[in-house]
Amino acid sequence: MVPSGLEKIEGNKLSIQNSTSKEDEKTNMDPKGGGWTTFPFIIGTMMGFSLGAGGWGANLIVFLITEFHVKNITATLINNVVLGCNNLLPFAGAIVADTFFDSYIVITTSLFVSLLPSPCAMGSLQCSTPSKLQFAVLYMALALASLGIGGTRFTIATNGADQFHKPKDQGIFFNWYFLALYVASSICFTAIIYIQDNLSWGLAFGICVIANAIALVLFASGKRFYRRIKPHGCPFISILRVVFAAVLKRNVPNTFSSQEYNYGSLATTNILQNGPSKSFRFLNCAALKTQGDDSLRGSNARSWKLCTVEKVEDLKTLLKIMRLWSSGILLSITISMVNSLVILQALTMDRHLGPHLKIPAGTGEAFHFPGQIALCYQKFPKPLKSTSTAMVSLLIAIGYYLSTAIIDMVRRTTGWLPDNINNGRLDNVYWMLAVIAVVNFGYYLVCSMLFKYQNLEKPNDIGDLAR
Fold it and tell me: Residue 181 and residue 161: Cα distance in Å, rounded?
């Protein structure tokens, strides 16, 4: 079957990225280092950091209720806000890594910041009767811990994938990344929480600090082996330029040949001989050469009036994948609410197995959407690699914030969520979440039908390329 002209144009977008990535690697990547030599340092760092971060976050609701005497639903709201920050800040950290510093600097700084929270605020015996000052110290400690997570959790994923050139090796790394994350989370939800509930909060948090310190030392020890990619500047400027140029030329007649586009490089010209792709074609005029553009050659102003075809196609790629990305928002809401409410249910139950073993209340899902990280990393434009892995973090953050708003609304408008949930109607809350999940599944099916995965291992197979 002969591929259509549209398929050829859309498919050649990947070839542009492959051809230009080689040039980018020469100018923005340290040619030395990288490969599987860096693997134990990065995965070991991920394990230590996940133990440190998960140890204090996994049982936060119980800590607030038992140590700071916060009411149940209020503790749930605080927990969701904190976890929302834990997942929103990595998105900010990724932008910093893409714009100003490389991943190594951001990760090292964040690991150091995560060691700063006060032990008194995090469960010392001297804090048994919290005052307003101790509450303030608690919130400051949580803020510092969130900042530590901000530049570490998903930036490590980007830094690890950057050590490899082949998508197959990157996929293998992501599998090990999530294995390390899940193993560490399992330890947090069992051993660490058991220590918190049955022995000492201070001892458990001390173990978390030690794990973080080991992660920092291990990551720094591998510095000489890492391949470090220099930041490309603000990655969103090029997106704004395309939008601005498209709006500026919105009234240009839609009758022009492929020769009238600004391809920017010989490689792009040879690959996209028929002009930009037909999807989101209103953006194509951003790369259209019009009268007066040649007089701006070499000036900064020119880039705001005339973009390259490659930049236009980069923005189209983002728009395509954002549809699929958005299908995870409602899913994130349901998972966030279920995780929080299950802990409240567990606290009202007899969790003893025999005279000496008590099952911890914090034992739900630690992380989700692992496949989206690999997908975003492969599909996003090269200047947005750190941001790409943090898109899932942004998704989870939105879910936690919206779940906080929903829980507060349900508490204010119904009798389903009183402080004593035995007097409430949690069954109605779960039915509401079931409806949200069904709606989300329908939306996901629509988005998945509009999206086709791009096989990076076979870039010449037009049938595998995104529509």
Answer: 15
Cα gap 122→141, rounded to integer Å: 7
CA distance 432 to 426: 10
Pairwise pLDDT comparison (132 vs 126), residue with the higher score? 132
- Let me know if 90 is exposed, middle or buried by CB neighbors in 10 A (0-12, 13-18, 19+): buried
Q: Are 184 and 10 in contact (CB under 8 A)?
A: no
Given a contact cutoff of 8 angstroms between Cβ atoms, the answer to whether 314 and 14 are in contact is no
**Distance (Å, whole) CA 109 – CA 216:** 9
Report the pLDDT averaged over residues 98-115. Answer: 77
Two tokens, residue 8? 């050829």
Q: Tell me how far apart the alpha carbons of residues 154 and 394 are, in angstroms, rounded to a whole number.
A: 11
Whether the pLDDT of residue 19 is over 70: the answer is: no
> Could you give the C-alpha distances from 203 to 107, 125, 192, 196, 338, in angstroms and in order?
26, 10, 9, 8, 29
User: Phi first, then psi: what are they for 49, rounded to 5°?
Assistant: -65, -40
Count CB atoms within 10 A of the CB of residue 453. 13
CA distance 392 to 398: 10
Give pLDDT, residue 122: 47
Average pLDDT, whole number, for the chain? 77
Name the 3-class secondary structure at 33.
Answer: coil
For 342-378, how does the pLDDT look when each residue is reduced to its tens digit (9 = 90+)? 888 888 888 778 777 777 777 565 455 667 777 787 7
* Bridge-based pairing state of the strands 352-353 and 357-358: antiparallel
In the DSSP assignment, the letter for residue 229 is B
pLDDT given for residue 27 in this prediction: 41
Measure the CA–CA gap between 461 and 467, rounded to whole angstroms: 13
d(CA 215, CA 175): 20
